[in-house]
Amino acid sequence: MKKVTAITGMVSFACILVGCNTSNEQTQNTESVENNTEEQTEGSGTDTQEDKGTDTETVESSETDDLSDTEDEKEEAYEEVQESENYMIQTDYVDATNEFITTFSISREGDIDGSREERLERSLFESDPSEQDILSTYTELTLEDSVLTVQFNVSDEQLLSTTSAQNQLFYQSFSGISDLYGVEKVIFLDPNGGREMIVGGSPLDQTMNIEEERGQTRGYYTLYDTELEQTLFLPGGLLGEDVTEADGEPLSFEETVEEMKTVNDHELSYSTAIVEGMAIDHASIENDVATVRYTVDEEIVTESDQIVFANAMQLAALDFHATELELVNETERRIVNYPLIK
Fold first, then answer.
1. pLDDT single digits (tens) 282-316
2. Which letter does DSSP use for residue 269 in this model?
């Protein structure tokens, strides 16, 4: 029994020793886990701060890039100018030795209020080259879309007669002005609503097709009138300038602008509106909006030069019945919009 007791006691003592060792190992393991957790936590905190720093640097870099882009946009921004919606067309004529040539001018200054019909009527009346002012004296005009109706209140051929020279200028002025206001057809009516009219020796018993009456014309060239102290514009078609391609097709707007850079020899001393120091970068018409991009040598090209250039481009665009002209001055970073046929 004593042996059993001794063994039992030893077993008990051994168990106690094992229990203590196990407890110590668990405690050490627990402390090790806690230490590892703290180290991980501290490491994680450091990483988080570093990540935050990186994110902050990224945001600051993005903001700097945005500011840079904004500054670039400001540097590249164009000044935009919207011109008056209304324009007026007027005609005159010059003696080209063997013939008279009708000249044109366009203006947006002064009293130019009114509808397209009212401005068309005023342009035709004020530009009538006949001695008796046929249009303002003997007619009433109405415009519907692209069709102009001319109602005469007299049918006396004597009252409506003109010289051969006046007759030529009358129809050049009438068809040219009508075209530049977007008119395509003209109906002439006598006092009774009939179609048997003779004006200036020419029968007007059929609808006038403006394109056929005026003939092919593309581009405008300049002539300074010392008496009027004004630059007048001559249509290329009346000057013998190239207005069609080799196959007879009318020049495109781009080709027209290109052709306007130079002039052919002629007895009449006229010039190009694209003066030395100007360069055309691009010209086109899309969706009835004409666009011309150009540069200027500011030491050579004057403000007057640019006004003449703008007027020539407006007239050229009106030949295509454009609704708007956009002139883009790449040098001065300015865009000027000119409303045309509305």
1. 999 999 999 999 999 999 999 999 999 999 999 99
2. -
Question: Which regions of the chain are under pLDDT 50?
Answer: 1-50, 52, 54, 56, 58-59, 73-74
Distance CA 232, CA 240 (A): 17
pLDDT at 49: 47
Sheet of strand 185-189: strand arrangement? 139-144, 147-152, 185-189, 208-209
Please state whether the predicted TM-score (pTM) of the whole model is above 0.85.
no
Q: How far is CA 237 from CA 23, 178, 272, 319, in A?
A: 113, 16, 14, 11
Query: What are the structure tokens assigned to 136, written together?
Result: 């303002």
Residue 230 identity? Q
The span from the CA of 96 to the CA of 209, in Å, is: 27
DSSP 199-225: ETTEE--S-EEHHHHH-----EEEEEE
Beta bridge partners of 177: none
Amino acid letter, 271: S
CB atoms within 10 A of CB 167: 17
